[in-house]
């Protein structure tokens, strides 16, 4: 094999080097196109993707369909599995749900092979030329188009066009390479040494081809890119269909590296999700490597019987393999999950829960879903801040400071959440977002700040409670009644603000405005009544000073809640 390559003339060697460079360049164009098309389709289909992921929680069959659909949209099983690892890490889906979605992702990725087969179709009619024109049209749209939606459509066109241009560059480079008889002989000799046409036994050559597919896919982190190269080689009869099958089986294992890397540092369930992906793909390859090794030629003959083009045969085999693997292993989802739990045990002290609070950076790969998850975390943060407010008010009115340590821990978690969400929003704002999601991200900065301020005012109330406890001061019954009346309005305000923010609706805005106005009126009433009680001698100076500050703090809590509701006006559908 090495001697055949070394025997090339200087001109042939230069041709070979040029062709290799063009193949590498074609891979770059192909992958840029896939990323451009996938990311823009993903952004455009953000709401649909969220609905799909919600359906995945119902049963394993819907999970498979969801995985296939999402992967077909983003055109990358690696991207899908990475986002699934992220979803499991933040509790968006359970491990069992993730397993079925991962199976579906393997089916969805076969769309790439059919795209490549389409690119290679026909000699007289160049499909690549048509899509090159589409890329140009898309580029023009991105230049002259107005609005994010139009520009995104243009970017999708550019991405689709670049995919076919990249494939054409790779295919053309392989064709140019074998125009030289010396190069063709050398390349054929190299692949013949790897068992071209081996049959009836599982030879070491089959294993080498399998490992070659796994290693190259892991290195490129794209099974689609390797499949494109394999199709180019197969259409020029440089490798047999049986060899192609072995390489594709290896590619299915190699693509697991991306999800394994993404799970490093994640929760135990996220690491288990990546392990399920590896176990599923390895199991499928172990099942099918035997028929490919022993009956590869017979499978090729069978495919020849109803379709002549090699590229379509490869695409059909790729889909049939993943469909069959899913059908065979889908009933054993729970077995795969249990095996993954054995391989990745829970460490002592490590949290294992399906409701993990926090945001995972892996969600940045799916901005539309990340925006929805940020909203959930903000709601949790708001619930914590409101709970602390109620706890602080109870300490103030009863004098019982037993909840002080719990209050402090919650306040710290609110501050930590504010810092983390703000940092996450900075990263999220750098991603490709739809117009509505951009407005949401912009408003979320202010919302988290408002909620954090509510927590701070609750902290002030605790300090007032401590001061009154030290001074043995007490509020009069009239003062307590006014505080409870103000609290009733804040409670109602919180209820309507929560509905407005979580449901993204403006129908509760009149209720929000009414209750916020009521808190303003109560603040004035509390100050007026306090002056009257002071004049009448019904209020001590110590309690009176705190009462005035309390009234202002409660009114400002209402103001910040009001701000949260108003933030929805920027993007809610009217």
Describe this structure in words.
It is a single chain. It contains 23 helices and no strands. It is mainly alpha-helical and 574 residues long. Helices cover 80% and strands 0% of the residues. It has helices at residues 2-6, 10-44, 46-55, 60-74, 77-89, 95-108, 111-120, 127-144, 148-178, 181-192, 204-220, 223-235, 241-254, 256-262, 268-304, 310-329, 333-343, 367-398, 404-429, 435-471, 477-503, 509-536, 541-567. The chain is elongated.
Helical stretch count?
Answer: 23
Spans of at least 5 consecutive residues whose pLDDT stays below 50 are 1-5, 196-201, 349-357
Chain-averaged pLDDT: 78
Helix/strand/pairing class, anyone?
mainly alpha
Radius of gyration: 31 Å
**Looking at the structure, what is the overall shape?**
elongated
How many independent structural domains?
A: 2
Q: What composes the largest sheet? A: none
What is the succession of H and E elements? HHHHHHHHHHHHHHHHHHHHHHH
Q: How many individual β-strands?
A: 0
Q: Which secondary structure elements does this structure contain, and how are they paired or packed?
A:
Blueprint: H1 2-6, H2 10-44, H3 46-55, H4 60-74, H5 77-89, H6 95-108, H7 111-120, H8 127-144, H9 148-178, H10 181-192, H11 204-220, H12 223-235, H13 241-254, H14 256-262, H15 268-304, H16 310-329, H17 333-343, H18 367-398, H19 404-429, H20 435-471, H21 477-503, H22 509-536, H23 541-567
Helix pairs in contact: 2-9, 3-4, 3-18, 4-6, 5-6, 5-14, 5-15, 6-15, 6-16, 6-17, 7-9, 7-12, 7-16, 8-9, 9-12, 11-12, 11-13, 12-13, 13-15, 13-16, 14-15, 15-16, 15-17, 18-19, 18-20, 18-21, 19-20, 20-23, 21-22, 21-23, 22-23
